[in-house]
Recover the amino acids of this structure.
């Protein structure tokens, strides 16, 4: 590890995007906005998905040059409502029939360039790429300053140039995407079937087809970074019987392929209904119930005794934080600080980065060296739970497991069952391939226990990512290939703010620090800057984000930071 990285991590210890696209009908394309002005307030609320804007499109004109044909074709990629009929006019008859708009999408910024290609009648269009979207609607952010070149071949058709060869898919600018698409969260279960885990997708703003698109996307399963970490109540292979989900008087009627539907148990159907209902309710706001049909007949959903518990959505942490005061762990309820009953003194261990379980009965902290994580419970002495090199601040999952990662580039992640009273507590050491060579500074488990926020750095480049946690029973087995989030600066610390949002920052002892809110469903937002911020914590929502200097805690009042507590360090909510 470099001295620079060690210094940054020392600050941490001593002081503290996938987004996806759902394509409606004939497809479109999208990405989370990553450019433009940055706000200084709360992230915007959910966008209205009733937008139905038509973009003016122009058919090819007689005598148009090859370059103008290519430009006209690309600029006609907004034709969601009519299966891109204008765009197809720029193609030869054969290609117009075979061209599939939903196979791949590029999202770009700035003006694109068209130049002659290497072959006869070939041309190359070059784009400054923001992201790419595959056939399943999964978005991958592009690297900084990335470009991509698309080659097309043209031919003369009755004396007019037409495109005879081009890759499938369309291309949209960021502003066009922001107008046409809106985020929707599909909800899948955690493996215990208790928590709902959001899988953010982007839908074109046409309410008449939104319910259908949501159901179709859900039946396709979770995004790659969530596969293995979450489960769906819907069986593999089940599909819509017809491409329509009508909603009348709040009732969504979902006709599914009969055999796989009828082979499910009543309990599974109840779980399917709970999963889909919460998704439709949060996305549309007009659905009050879901009815499943097989061969146009309603299926048995059982009685009251068969009902399953509703999904726990956006599991909020308790309002109390654990903190340090005079090198001891204390409890802070937002107004006063109190000792933790029954907890032995730990000042001799020089604790830093305290953490608290969701039950409020188990605590953890880093040693001053940053090479040990200690666990402590009232009535028990503090004991080493994990050892490693330059460990991240400890993080509790809702199930009581305690997590940390080595910051030495080894890719080592450790988890231990820290629940009180567990004899011979299970511990797991994972080697995560995509973290090898990365100096990890943050690993925070989400409030549903299925994902982790990971902040790392390699060769001076910071990475903020969300990974899925794959478990067997309750035992962690691996971390999935991550979904990276676009961010500013070089963040080191991060915490969960909501079910799909995190707060990140780079600590400083003196210079102004900006905390940035990154959300899978909207553009990044920067909060007002504050000097000397070395730690942050977050309860439920942006209004419950707290910035902390060496011994003072600040809360947001409007858009300004106001001091809340003195002589308090590194306050942390459960998790």
């Amino acid at each position: 590890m470099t001295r620079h990285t060690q210094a940054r991590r020392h600050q941490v210890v001593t002081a503290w995007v996938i987004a996806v696209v759902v394509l409606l009908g004939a497809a479109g394309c999208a990405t989370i906005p990553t450019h433009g002005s940055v706000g200084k307030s709360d992230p915007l609320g959910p966008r209205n998905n009733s937008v139905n804007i038509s973009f003016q499109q122009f058919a090819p004109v007689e005598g148009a040059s090859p370059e103008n044909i290519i430009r006209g074709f690309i600029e006609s990629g907004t034709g969601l409502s009519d299966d891109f009929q204008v765009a197809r006019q720029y193609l030869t008859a054969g290609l117009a029939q075979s061209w599939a708009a939903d196979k791949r999408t590029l999202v770009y910024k700035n003006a694109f360039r068209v130049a002659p290609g290497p072959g006869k009648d070939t041309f190359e269009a070059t784009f400054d790429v923001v992201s790419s979207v595959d056939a399943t609607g999964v978005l991958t952010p592009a690297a900084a300053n990335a470009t991509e070149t698309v080659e097309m071949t043209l031919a003369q058709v009755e004396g007019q140039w037409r495109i005879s060869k081009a890759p499938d898919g369309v291309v949209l600018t960021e502003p066009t995407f922001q107008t046409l698409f809106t985020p929707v969260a599909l909800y899948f279960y955690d493996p215990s079937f208790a928590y709902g885990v959001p899988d953010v997708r982007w839908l074109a703003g046409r309410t008449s087809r939104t319910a259908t698109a949501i159901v179709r996307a859900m039946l396709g399963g979770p995004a790659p970074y969530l596969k293995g970490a979450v489960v769906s109540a819907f069986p593999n292979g089940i599909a819509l019987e017809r491409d329509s989900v009508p909603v009348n008087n709040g009732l969504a009627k979902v006709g599914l392929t009969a055999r796989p539907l009828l082979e499910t148990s009543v309990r599974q159907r109840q779980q399917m209904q709970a999963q889909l209902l919460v998704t439709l309710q949060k996305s549309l706001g007009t659905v009050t119930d879901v009815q499943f049909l097989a061969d146009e007949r309603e299926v048995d959903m059982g009685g009251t005794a068969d009902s399953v518990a509703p999904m726990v959505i956006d599991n909020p942490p308790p309002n109390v934080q654990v903190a340090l005061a005079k090198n001891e762990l204390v409890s802070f309820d937002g107004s006063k600080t109190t000792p933790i009953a029954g907890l032995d003194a730990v000042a001799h261990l020089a604790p830093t980065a305290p953490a608290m379980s969701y039950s409020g009965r188990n605590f953890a902290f880093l040693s001053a060296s940053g090479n040990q994580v200690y666990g402590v419970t009232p009535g028990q002495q503090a004991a080493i739970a994990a050892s490693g090199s330059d460990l991240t601040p400890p993080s509790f999952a809702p199930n009581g497991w305690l997590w940390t990662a080595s910051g030495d580039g080894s890719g080592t992640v450790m988890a231990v069952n820290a629940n009180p009273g567990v004899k011979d507590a299970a511990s797991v050491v994972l080697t995560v391939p995509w973290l090898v060579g990365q100096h990890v500074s943050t690993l925070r488990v989400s409030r549903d226990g299925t994902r982790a926020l990971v902040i790392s750095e390699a060769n001076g480049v910071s990475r903020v990512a969300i990974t899925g946690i794959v478990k067997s029973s309750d035992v962690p087995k691996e971390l999935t290939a991550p979904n990276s989030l676009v961010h500013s600066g070089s963040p080191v610390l991060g915490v969960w703010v909501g079910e799909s949002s995190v707060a990140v920052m780079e600590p400083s002892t003196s210079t102004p620090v900006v905390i940035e809110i990154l959300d899978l469903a909207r553009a990044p937002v920067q909060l007002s800057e504050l000097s000397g911020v070395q730690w942050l914590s977050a309860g439920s929502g942006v209004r419950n984000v707290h910035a902390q200097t060496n011994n003072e805690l600040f809360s947001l009042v409007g858009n300004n930071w106001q001091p809340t507590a003195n002589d308090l360090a590194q306050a942390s909510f459960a998790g």
